[in-house]
């Protein structure tokens, strides 16, 4: 699930950004319960995956936004999955 969430977040980075900034904010315009369903999971599992990415210093959450604090690290996680 963590890798699926990371892939979703990486897909939110504009493709024109070959060299994205270190920190990028993804504004969630859907409730986390809907995001969980789109990722094929339940909100509790999504919350654990968010916590895992936070513990790895790849993201942080701010209200309804997810701040990608290490875009390259997220891409590496996705590529190695």
What report would you give on this structure?
The chain has helices at residues 2-11, 32-38, 43-55, 71-80; strands at residues 24-27, 59-62, 65-68. It has 81 residues and is α+β, with helices and mostly antiparallel strands. Helix 1 crosses helix 4 (71-80). The longest helix has 13 residues, at 43-55. The radius of gyration is 12 Å and the shape is globular. The mean pLDDT is 91.
Order of helices and strands: HEHHEEH
The domain count comes to 1
What separation lies between the terminal Cα atoms? 11 Å
Average predicted confidence as pLDDT: 91
Strand content: 5-15%
Give the CATH superfamily: Winged helix-like DNA-binding domain superfamily/Winged helix DNA-binding domain
CATH topology name: Arc Repressor Mutant, subunit A
The strands making up the biggest β-sheet line up spatially as: 1-3-2
CATH architecture: Orthogonal Bundle
SS content category: alpha+beta
Number of helices: 4
Provide the helix percentage.
Answer: 40-55%
Q: What top-tier CATH class fits best?
A: Mainly Alpha
């Amino acid at each position: 699930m963590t890798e699926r969430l990371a892939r979703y977040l990486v897909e939110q980075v504009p493709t024109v950004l070959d060299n994205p900034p270190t920190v990028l904010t993804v504004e969630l315009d859907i409730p986390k319960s809907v995001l969980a369903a789109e990722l094929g999971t339940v909100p509790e599992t999504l919350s654990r995956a968010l916590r895992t990415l936070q513990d790895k210093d790849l993201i942080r959450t701010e209200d309804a936004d997810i701040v990608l604090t290490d875009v390259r690290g997220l891409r590496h996680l996705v590529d190695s999955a």
